[in-house]
Amino acid sequence: MSQITVHVAGSERTVEQGTTATELFADDPHVVVARVDGELVDLDHVLGDGDAVEPVLVTEQDGLDVLRHSCAHVLAQAVQQTFPDAKLGIGPPIRDGFYYDFDVAEPFTPEDLKRLEKSMQKIINTGQTFARREVSDEEAREELAGEPYKLELIGLKGGSADEAAEGAGVEVGGNQLTMYDNVDRTGQVVWGDLCRGPHVPTTKLIANGFKLMRSAAAYWRGSEKNPQLQRIYGTAWPSKDELKAYLERLAEAERRDHRKLGAEMDLFSFPEEVGPGLPVFHPKGAILRRTMEDYVWQRHVEAGFSYVTTPHLSKEGLFHTSGHLPYYADGMMPELDDDGQAYRIKAMNCPMHNLIYRSQQRSYRDLPLRYFEFGTVYRNEKSGVLQGLTRVRMITQDDSHSYVTKEQAPGEIKHLLDFVLGLLRDFGLDDYYLELSTRDDSEGRRDKFIGSEEQWTEATAVLEKVARESGLELVDDPGGAAYYGPKISVQARDAIGRTWQMSTIQYDFNQPERFGLEYSAADGTRQQPVMIHSAKFGSIERFIGVLTEHYAGQFPPWLAPVQVLGVPVAEEFDDYLRDVAARLRAEGIRVELDTSDDRFPKKIRNASRSKAPFILIVGGEDRDAGAVSFRYRDGSQKNGVPVEEAVAEVVAAVRGRVQV
């Protein structure tokens, strides 16, 4: 046999023609797929001369996604074995797991999920292999004649499949259709599915590190006009121990769920009468929100920004000028008609800030010119994706726009990034990395972005340079840019290791041109400024949701809606405690007293559940000594603290933004 040369993880090797990736990585059981010339392939892929080959471990994100998608296939096989009339939808990997949609006569029950798990385990234990074969459109239609949803997917094949249906890219993402057959140890095909692949070489790699989590209704292709399918969510991990750790993280996340804590702490609610995704903030939640607004207002003023306000709606033409209606219409609320004049509720603040800039002639001496506002915008989010405060239809942004010369852009971006990182640290989020979102240059996607090759290259280079100079980890996000320019986003990890996209900084060469924004340069010519968008919180609503979960409701003293809760041992000490509370309020401290008829032990239990950072207890000895007793959130206590010292301790913790 002739020999070929391949490059394995950067090293040149000579192998026999017909060699597969399996043979190259046979000594490492953690390798589940390979990357050949940048493309993920099955391990039984036959290598060609000059191929650059890299192993992909099951612990890498790509490897995990393949493991999870393979597990989704096992689920689908188990469903069709258990419910023979079930029709198949789409089954992609998702964050921390996978799902698969099915058309079945009745919704799945918890008992059904248990039966399916047992059936999946049997399939996994038999060590089935995944065999790939290419098929023509006609062959696929013939094989899938009884699968109406798969037949529809055949017509969506290509690079834009995910736009037509969420997750469709894992089925028909390329130009060549492929089927994957599940083959048992005898070589018999026992099941198959339309799929782009790749897959793990054998079901045994899934082992017992999987679990079915829940089922839910889901419209086919995300549209309520289509049939309602049943979606089964699952998770899969390289080992049972990792599965167990994940389930423990989930349990902790459930305890921290901001929707649950928000109700318990009386912070906010989502009244049905108002509508989904539209939160109502109660007094304590409004205090928290106002504290955040006051903080970020002051920070913006210190950073050289001028505060502006703009209306909640505008004539529709404004959003044509900005490019949002042509490129972002689905994200905007439907038009409003006023005697034939179309209006839109705003989904972004920037077009109106541009009008403020354009209201006067500007000179290079005016730049950087910085505007910000607490602008509430509205997004036409589908009800199925709404999730508490972290995905809403009403978004209040601490939205800023900097107008700068091209030469000033790098310095302004650094200025904004320093601002953002300082803000996150003040709110107790100090574990983060940066993500650089760029244009999607793939076929069929490039026309979703405005601007020339030169503009995108220049803007991306500026953002990347500033991001790298920050010294923070930088992760690429191809295709994640806004239609008008690339962006940096700060990805913050919370107390239990989850990652949240927080602040964003976007470089915009598009809107200044569309609005005809200019400034007079030093040489007397008229030049176009660069516009830099930034939202420090991202949205106040989402930031509150993230912080609530990060702190499990135990906000640091400066943020806590109730900073001090006073608990008298008996009614006779109420007046003394009121005097202490008055001294604290004089220092700007938020104080509540429990002067209810409840017995003292119940008051203490209620105080512990309140999550107030400081609980002040007063009994006879405290009153006689002119003192109070502290009880802290960790259960510790400090008795007989003179009132002056107690007030000083609370004030120092609040004003110093102590993270306790």
β-strand number = 33
Helix content: 25-40%
Net shape? globular
Largest sheet: 8 strands, mixed
Strand content: 25-35%
Mean pLDDT: 92
End-to-end separation in angstroms reads 70 Å
**Low-confidence segments, ≥5 residues, pLDDT <50?**
none
Across the major sheet, the strand order is: 16-20-21-28-25-24-22-23
Radius of gyration: 29 Å
Number of helices: 21
> How does the helix and strand content classify structurally?
alpha+beta
Binding site for Zn(2+): 350, 401, 533
Cofactor: Zn(2+)
Protein name: Threonine--tRNA ligase
Organism: Ornithinimicrobium kibberense
State the main characteristics.
660 residues; alpha+beta; eight-stranded mixed sheet; five-stranded mixed sheet; 21 helices
Please outline what is shown here.
The protein is about 35% helix and about 25% strand.
Overview of the molecule:
With 660 residues, the chain is α+β, with helices and mostly antiparallel strands. Helices cover 34% and strands 27% of the residues. The chain is built from 21 helices and 33 strands. The strands form eight sheets. An eight-stranded mixed beta sheet has the order 16-20-21-28-25-24-22-23, with helices on both faces. The protein has a five-stranded mixed beta sheet with strand order 2-1-5-3-4, covered by helices on one side. Strands 6, 7, 8, 12 and 13 form a five-stranded antiparallel beta sheet that branches. Helix 2 crosses helix 3 (110-125), helix 9 crosses helix 17 (540-550) and helix 14 packs across helix 15. The longest helix is centred in the first third of the chain and has 22 residues, at 61-82. The protein starts with a strand and ends in a 5-residue tail after the last helix. The model has no long low-confidence stretch (mean pLDDT 92).
